[in-house]
Amino acid sequence: MPAEIKSLIEQIEAIGQAALSEIGSAEGSAGLEELRVRHMGKKSALSQALSGLKDIPGEERKSVGQVANQVKSRIKDALGARLADVEAAERNSQLGSESIDVTLAGRPLPEGRLHPLTRILTEIEDIFIGMGFELASGPDMEHEYQNFDALNIPEAHPARDMHDTFYLHGGGVLRTHTSPVQIRTMQNRTPPMAILAPGKAYRCENADNTHSPVFHQVEGFMIDRKVRFSDLKGVLSEFLRQLLGPDIKYRFRPSYFPFTEPSAEVDILWSVDGRKPDWMEVLGSGMIHPNVLEAGGVDRDQYSGFAFGLGVERFAMLKYGIPSIRLFYENDLRFLGQF
Ligand code: PHE
Predict the structure, then answer these.
(1) How far apart are CA 111 and CA 322, in angstroms?
(2) 49: pLDDT strictly greater than 80
(3) SS3 68
(4) What mean pLDDT is predicted for residues 63-89?
(5) What contacts 53, CB < 8 A, 6 or more positions away?
(6) pLDDT value, residue 162
(7) Closest-lying ligand 1 atom to the alpha carbon of residue 285
(8) Nearest of 322, 133, 317, 151 to residue 236 by alpha carbon
(9) Ligand 1 interacting residues, C-beta cut-off 6 A
(10) Other CB atoms closer than 10 Å to residue 105's CB: what's the count?
(11) How does pLDDT run across 256-278, given as a tens digit for each residue?
(12) Which of 231, 257, 313 to mutate to test the pocket of ligand 1 (most atoms within 8 A of CB)?
């Protein structure tokens, strides 16, 4: 074999080696495509080396051509194999970066809770509903007549000063208690009736640990023939035991309201933060005054009734051991989250 043919064959094999090693270390499908053009295309080193082939005589051209074809097909196979590897790697890394772990635990959402006032109110309602009371309601903006006069508190009666009233422009008041619902209900129903009327009450006074200008009351009353003070005591005692437990210490203390006669307030022995127990007033009550029955359109000679009005915040403070009424209105989640 002539020396120039031998050297051409060596040149072709060297081109092949160089191409294979480049392909072996190629990164990414774009890089491989660039190598394919460079090593397999018309302008490749191989094509250039073979450009003089037509001038070589028969037998020798054949052996050069064979070597060239082998080198070409090795380069082609190497490109194909490397491309398959590179594409698989690219697919895997894409799948890896897009993967979703469906077994991963969810992010916890903060759980909503009922406000302690809502909770105690629901408990209070359930107890009275269990004793046969029905729910009723009235407006927060009230006529002075319903809030005072119909409840036996005439204009200039000193009892009006007991209620620090918010007066509305153009007449009317923010109701100072839920008792006007007594009048509204009596006007719409005929006895017998046992009614529970929860709602807001408003008094123009300074906030402190036991007072707030807006607070919640539950009004309750029962009207029938021969309702007596012992009925009042029985219903309220049963209520207190159900809400606060059989060991609760309470007392009925004689009191005065213009719309009840006789009247009594209930105090509960209360201790908070280990302080010395003290009596806390939680409700007013009494036998509905005949003038009030009359204002409500109820026959005062045939019927009698008892009524009470309790402070919802006070009961929540007692039941949950809350030292200040202000905590109910500050909406501090660290406080609200405890109920
Ligand atoms: N309305 C009274 C108050 O707010 C409470 C009460 C209601 C007293 C019913 C007696 C009867 O102070």
Answers:
(1) 22
(2) no
(3) helix
(4) 86
(5) 61, 64, 65, 68
(6) 65
(7) 10
(8) 133
(9) 177, 179, 257, 260, 284-286, 307-309
(10) 6
(11) 999 999 999 999 998 777 788 88
(12) 257
Tokens 């380069």 label which residue?
A: 75
Atom 4, ligand 1: residue with shortest CA distance: 177
C-alpha distance from residue 330 to each of 181, 207, 318, 327, 333 (Å):
29, 13, 19, 5, 9
173-174 and 193-202 beta bridge pairing: unpaired
CA angle 230, 236, 239 (to 5 degrees): 140
Structure tokens at 326: 């202000």
Per-residue pLDDT reduced to its tens digit, 130-148: 999 999 999 999 999 999 9
What gap in Å lies between CA 83 and CA 64, rounded to an integer?
28
Cα–Cα dist 48/165, whole Å: 108
Beta carbons of 97 and 89 less than 8 angstroms apart: no
For 60, counting Cβ atoms within 10 Å of its Cβ (0-12 exposed, 13-18 middle, 19+ buried), the class is middle
Nearest of 267, 238, 260 to residue 306 by alpha carbon: 260
Answer whether 0.85 is exceeded by the pTM.
Answer: no
pLDDT in tens, 184-241: 999 999 999 999 999 999 999 888 988 899 999 999 999 999 999 999 999 999 999 9
Q: Which residues pair with 208 in a beta bridge?
A: 211
DSSP for residue 108: P
User: 171-184: b or e for each residue (b if 16 or more CB lie within 10 Å)?
Assistant: ebbbbbbbbbbbbb
Both tokens of 159, joined, read 């009892």
Nearest C-alpha to atom 7 of ligand 1 is from which residue?
309
- Beta pairing, strands 304-311 & 141-142: unpaired
Q: How far apart are CA 9 and CA 50, in angstroms?
A: 10
